[in-house]
Amino acid sequence: MPLSAYFRFFIVLLWISGASVDAYITAITANRRQPHRQYRNWPRCNLSMKTKVGVVGLPNVGKSTLFNALSRQSIAAAENYPFCTIEPNTSPIAMPDDGRLERLAVMAGSRRAVSATLELVDVAGLVKGASRGEGLGNKFLATIRECDVILHVIRTYVDDDIVHVHGRVDPVGDADVVNLELLLADLAHVQRRLDRRTCNGIERDVLSKVEECLVEGRPARTLGLSLEEGQSIKSMGLLTLKPVIYAFNVDEVDLLLDREESLQRAKESMGRIQYCDPEKDSFVLVSAKLEADIGELSENETAKYFESLGSDGLPDNLLSHNSVPKLVKDMLGLSLVYTGPGVPASRSQTTKSHLLGQPAMRAHDFAGRLHGDIQSGFMQAEVIDSASLLEGEGYAGAKSAGRLRTEGREYTLQDGDVILIKWK
Ligand SMILES: Nc1nc2c(ncn2[C@@H]2O[C@H](COP(=O)(O)OP(=O)(O)OP(=O)(O)O)[C@@H](O)[C@H]2O)c(=O)[nH]1
Ligand SMILES: [Mg+2]
């Protein structure tokens, strides 16, 4: 009998038994979504998940300009009118390490150096009343729920040609508006979940606590939830549970010439932002316009640009493509480890940096992140701190001098480690 005849026969059987085809299809897809029995009791594996940074702020404050500066490309449209961004922009941004990756690649004789990346997400601007549908509303915040950190851009530069949605520059007032909208978006999200009968046990208890906190006008992260409590509501992606980096977008001149005063002003503003959590939130000075401008100039032109502003230039580590990812790394307790040195040239010609999250990763799990075969054939790992490796004559030299450690599968990787896994 041809296959289609079998299928028709099956449908008739279902119809006779009173089940609808829809129910049958739902049953098949639901079954497919179930993990294979063998993996059901395994911890959820998030090894390949990228750390995401979501950019929020009022419209026209410089979010997309900063996004372009951080990604060092002109991806997002950044024009002088509110709601220029409608659809989210995403881009990987390299994790800087003061040139360690390049130096390791040169030492290892690799042809390529591949940097670990964070993922940056730029969304539309939030306005007062977004929770009631003002501006572009707040539905686009769903994209930010998937992020690990919020980068909150605040306009502090004065430029009469650039429209401000409230008609005046007020960093603290603007931050309060955006924070309140994030809080209201969370409150609606939590209440929708609490209305469902499927929300019970620890999830219901924790969400009730969070609701109370939000109603009082405090971000959920001020509750200091335990690890278990946090896990029970993790899938909600609550915005006010995420750590925040406030990016004060200052004037070019303020960043170059009045840096100390600008830092002082930003610190003082942090103290006055209403829903700011001084324990967990952090801040950084950026000049989105300056960084986007110099990103398009040659070295010579950049020198002239700085000269025209009466400055010798800006150390690279003060530029946001360096400072912001480093801040994210510190805030989330991420670590950067390297592979490549020590691998025979016939097997690989690439030195790579890898960003690892919390809790710290064991060597055996890391092997799985590289390749399933490396994990299943794991024998041991050779480990050395990258700074110590770079001090010497190369990998072979470090090995013969006995500076490499031999570690087993339980070894917990440390920030800055260079690891070479031996496998069968
Ligand atoms: N003078 C000055 N202008 C800036 C600065 N940052 C951004 N701008 C200008 O402000 C305007 C808006 O910048 P965008 O990056 O599009 O702002 P946005 O926050 O993404 O705006 P929406 O997508 O509409 O929410 C552009 O014309 C930028 O050139 C800055 O630091 N100084
Ligand atoms: Mg934009």
Question: Could you provide a short overview of the structure?
Answer:
By secondary structure, the protein is of the alpha/beta class.
Overall description:
With 424 residues, this protein is an alpha/beta fold. The protein has three domains: 3-34, no CATH class; 52-88 and 123-331, no CATH class; 335-423, Beta-grasp domain (Ubiquitin-like (UB roll)), CATH 3.10.20. Helices cover 40% and strands 16% of the residues. It contains 17 helices and twelve strands. The protein has helices spanning 3-16, 21-33, 63-71, 100-108, 141-145, 171-194, 201-215, 227-232, 252-256, 259-272, 288-295, 299-308, 320-332, 363-370, 372-376, 386-391, 395-400; strands at 52-56, 89-94, 112-114, 117-122, 149-155, 244-249, 282-286, 335-339, 350-356, 378-385, 405-407, 417-423. Helix 3 (63-71) crosses helix 13. The longest helix is centred in the middle third of the chain and has 24 residues, at 171-194. The chain is globular and about 65 Å long. The protein starts with a helix and ends with a strand. Bound molecules: guanosine-5'-triphosphate and magnesium ion. Guanosine-5'-triphosphate is lined by residues 57, 59-65, 78-80, 82-85, 124-125, 157, 159, 162, 249, 287-289.
